[in-house]
Design goal:
The structure holds 2 protein chains of 2 kinds. Chain A is mainly alpha-helical. Helices cover 77% and strands 3% of the residues of chain A. Chain A has helices spanning 2-30, 36-55, 59-87, 92-114, 139-161, 163-173, 175-180, 185-211, 221-231, 236-257, 261-276, 283-289, and strands at 129-132, 135-138. In chain A, helix 1 (2-30) packs antiparallel against helix 8, helix 2 (36-55) packs parallel to helix 4 (92-114) and helix 9 packs across helix 10 (236-257). Residues 285-290 of chain A have low confidence and may be disordered. Chain B is α/β, with parallel strands linked by helices. Chain B is built from 13 helices and 15 strands. The longest helix of chain B has 23 residues, at 2-24. Chain B is globular, with a radius of gyration of 22 Å. Classes of the chains: A mainly alpha, B alpha/beta. Chains A and B meet through helix 1 and helix 10 of A and strand 7, helix 8 and helix 9 of B.
Chain lengths: 290, 376
Amino acid sequence: MQLQIILNGLALGSVYALIATGFSLIFNILKFSNFAHGATMAFCAFAGYFVAAANKMGLVPTIAVAVATGGLVALCGEFVAFRSITVRNASPIYYFVSSITLGTLLEGLVTIKAGANFYNYPLFFKKRIMKFHGLVISTSDVIMFCCSAAALLILVWVIRKTRLGRGLRAVSFDRDTAGLMGINVIRTIQFAFLLSGMLAGLAGVFLGINYTLYPTLGSLVVKGFIASVIGGLGSIAGALIGAVLLGLAETQLVNLVGSTLTPVLTFVIMLVFLLLRPRGIAGSNIQEKA
Amino acid sequence: MKRIVAILFTTVTLFTASLFGAGKEIVIGCLQDISGPTSSLGKMVEAGAKWHIDEINAKGGVNGAKIKMITYDTKADVNEAINALTRAITSDKVCAIIGPPIANIVLAIAPISEQYNVPILHLAVDIRSEIKDDGTTYKNTFGMQPNNLQMGAIMGQYAIKNGFKTFGVMYNQSNAYAVSLLEPFTKAVTAAGGTVVKEVAYTANDKDYKTLLSPLVSAKVDAIYMPNYTQDLILITQQARGLGYEGALIAGLDAGPPFNTMLGEDCDKIYYINNVDDTEPKLKDMIKAVKEKAGIDATNKFFLGYDIAGILNQVLAETGPDPDKIHDAMLKVKDYDGLTGKITIDPANHMPTGLEMVMFTYKGTTPVMLERYSAK
């Protein structure tokens, strides 16, 4: 029973990890919380759904559509909502306002198309569960866990090993100095949005598979935000750690105290982190290195 | 001067036209969840009501007056619903309202409706939509389908009759509909010798139910009772089956179509209650006609909306658009032969008496009618 709850927590944590990483990536570069990230997830999830439903596509093409849509939407969002603020080096509060506005716009577009109803992805897996020594493991959870892990490993590799990734780290560390060193700051920011949007697409599809599709699906971004705060805002590794811990904590709390008290205790945990360790678990070291 | 005369002339003309127009039209409101999580219910009620009103208007209307139905969107939100109700009554001067399909909204507007003299004919099953804490009735709310006590008891009795002995219960504790159907079911089951092994509650924002479902699955209960809305039912079904639970799942009205198509897989061992048997020839013909003309698949809420509009038209024919008279006539509705059964309103509680309900299950994704039950 306990091991089953841990497995459930890991599955939940892997979804939160996808949300938190995309969220954290933008915080890392531009130092603001991109609340449009949730609406981007919902937008991509619906794009994947409508294309998949119309063409009777399987999981992989559906993910491909959602990921591509996510990258495109994030790039457009960066240009429309954030570019001028970056260029003018304006106050971070404008980023915040802009991200809320962009999120509302995307959610509104989804509502116009989907009509505020909810939808369900087609059944992608013939075998829904796997049993292993008394443990029941959902196929979708395993695939989601593997996809999340693969995506995040690729992300870490891109950030650590590629030229663009090095640029990303440099810009996150000091945007002005990076510019003086010959790094194209705007292109690097675009790259961060592209990656973030693609992660949003991936997260959107798995959220849709696990929790049905509805226009306010993006409200789950709050979980990504909490995971980021616990892990350390702006730290990719911290976001991962925070997300897994949050997933585990939530499932344990639900088991121990029930569903009603769990959100209250989750927010208490977040407040304790903010009070005792504002930079989260990962702390400044990982945060600076991204 | 010419301008002033022109404005005066236009104003007088419009006023006169509106006076003449008022005589040829009866305005009713349709306060529904057109958007939001329960929009599939609200839209279906609206479509059913509109279908009936179009039929009446095509035959010349009520005593020569055409019925005009104005729809207001509650957005499944209490504040929006209250604002829309106020607007309908004070601004658009509707004489009666075809009301919301869900209990949370009706419970919120029931006290507000006390200050207005406009009857609201709604579909919430929670008896608190009609009965106040002190046992008296809200003057203007009328329930138009069997209430929670009747529905819960029917499901409980049916479950025991079919050999289920142990039950787990999973319900949304922030949903009045789910909560209201809990106790009557438990009472019926316990009275007939069954046992509710464990109850688990969740809140509106929860989406991951696996941890909550685990103890029910581990207890190997014969059936899980889940009196919730469609989206929750889909998630609970998927996650319960995902945890390897192979027992029965018993749900309220919202496991009826389009639940089966939205779930997207076989719905075997899922039992639900319904207002109508849509395999009856009369209903099958109507479903076909609605599909051809309106392009929608009529579900139980369509027929409930149709019946409400029918009762309202019958009452309007007797009273005209006078809300007080409509109210009094509503209390005297007897043996109205609707698609959902013979409807008689009990003046003591503003709810129908003796309406039957139908138990269904699925074979694959096809609904299979099991048994009719009187909801007395």
